Structures are given as structure tokens and as C-alpha cells.
Amino acid sequence: MTRNLPLWRGRGGADGRLDIRGPARIHPWADIESLGDHRVAMAMTVLALYSDAPVRINDTAWIATSYPTFWDDLNKVGGHAEQHRGN
User: Would residue 24 count as lying in a domain?
Assistant: First the structure.
């Protein structure tokens, strides 16, 4: 998680803390790597809802291991996500 936060000027500490400041919009700089971790993929997806531009999050298929209806639920609360093959 801390690997991806600097892409959006966020901060995560080695002590396990995560600093979140709002309501500023996020400006993505690069593709986001979930590193095969469903928790990272879900967290970065929710963070991407505050982006001014489309965000690509790689390896999102892992989300189904813990939350099979994540994409349906995201869309129900107003999010929009497009899954691509191989992701």
C-alpha cells in the first residue's frame, strides 16, 4: 500500500499508519500495482473514486477471493469501474 500512495501524494508510514487528507481531488500519475493483494486492490479502487482521471489498477481479479460482489456494490454506491481481461 505504501508503495502506491506516493503516486497520489499520499503518505503511509512504516508504523502501519495511513494519513488521509481530504477533500482534495487525486491526480493519478501511473498504473497502480495491487501486487496480487485483494486488500490493496480494493483500497486503491476506493481511493481512485476521488481521481480526476481514469485510474488503472492491475491484478484486481484477487478481489473476488474475499469480496465477490465488490464491483456490483461499488456500482450501487455510484462508483464506476471497467474490468479488462487479464485483470
Answer: yes
Residue 74: name the closest of 47, 34, 54 by CA. Answer: 47
**Is residue 47 situated within a structural domain?**
yes
The burial of 32, by beta-carbon neighbours within 10 Å (0-12 exposed, 13-18 middle, 19 or more buried), is given as buried
Residue 63: pLDDT over 90: yes
Helix spans in 1-87 (H): 38-48, 70-76
- Tell me the pLDDT of the chain averaged across its residues: 76
> Structure pTM?
0.67
Omega of the bond prior to 6 within 30 degrees of 0, cis? no
| 58 lies in some domain | yes
Look at the chain and report how many structural domains it folds into: 1
